Backbone:
């Protein structure tokens, strides 16, 4: 997908790039597959802010995505590729012979009028969903389940793709986009192919207004505040170095381990942080 640039008739316009949306074939969503999406502005059910700097943005409707792909051994035809404001990837509208329609994540290379199918007997083809035990080693996959039958939870953003490295006993070794290698049950389903819209990471917003349109509010640096407002605040001019980087609640921001011991830690063969030392 090409990226559009503009003539710099204003300072901010010089840096703005946008997607050309050339792969989009339908501009209005399937109404039966959308639900209202209420803005929460980073707050939890008690009204307390859990994520700062969120709020506003354009009104959206949520598209219901078929992450389980549990309509087995039934050919579905791709009838449209659509934009989804709630995710970086595109979505594909699939119609089945019984008239039912479902949204799936759009894999790179899947086009309108192509067919997709899910199930243990499906062909190894882009867009098809199979259990890991039926997928050959070396295959690029996405929409990966953590727990068999729960539905895809991992490798779902634009351009993402994991690689099936090996199979041993009841588990498969999969290299994640982060570089982490971990075990998954061979019963877990995954979709063949890489998620589409890989150029998403190359887009430059260019000005603050586009970020506000996405629902992000301004972020003020801690060193620009007063001591009463932030641990890094105060000082004459730009003072730093006398204080370790930390949050407004005094939690260190660099090197402080926040991950607790998880039940499934034994499934991680190589952590993503190991990539830093590779080749040294």
Residues:
């Amino acid at each position: 997908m090409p990226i559009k640039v503009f003539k710099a008739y204003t300072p901010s316009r010089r840096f703005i790039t946008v997607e050309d949306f050339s792969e989009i074939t339908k501009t209005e969503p399937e109404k039966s597959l959308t639900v209202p999406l209420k803005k929460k502005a980073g707050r939890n059910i008690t009204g307390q802010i859990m994520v700062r700097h969120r709020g506003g943005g354009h009104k959206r409707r949520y598209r219901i995505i078929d992450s389980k792909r549990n309509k087995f051994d039934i050919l579905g035809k791709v009838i449209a590729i659509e934009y989804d404001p709630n995710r970086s990837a595109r979505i594909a509208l699939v119609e089945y012979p019984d008239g039912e329609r479902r949204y799936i994540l759009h894999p790179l290379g899947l086009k309108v009028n192509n067919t997709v199918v899910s199930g243990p007997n499906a062909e190894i083809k882009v867009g098809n969903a199979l259990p890991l035990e039926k997928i050959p080693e070396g295959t690029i996959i996405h929409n990966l389940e953590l727990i068999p039958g729960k539905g895809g939870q991992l490798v779902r953003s634009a351009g993402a793709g994991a690689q099936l490295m090996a199979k041993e006993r009841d588990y498969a070794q999969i290299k994640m986009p982060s570089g982490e290698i971990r075990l998954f049950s061979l019963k877990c389903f995954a979709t063949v192919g890489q998620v589409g819209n890989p150029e998403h990471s190359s887009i430059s917003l260019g000005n603050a207004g586009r970020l506000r349109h996405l629902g992000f509010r301004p972020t003020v640096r801690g060193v620009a505040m007063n001591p009463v407002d932030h641990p890094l605040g105060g000082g004459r001019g730009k003072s730093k170095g006398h204080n370790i980087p930390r949050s407004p609640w005094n939690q260190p921001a660099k090197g402080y381990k926040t991950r607790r011991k998880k039940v499934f830690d034994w499934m991680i063969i190589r952590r993503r942080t190991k990539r830093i030392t590779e080749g040294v």
In short: Residues 275-280 have pLDDT under 50 and may be disordered.
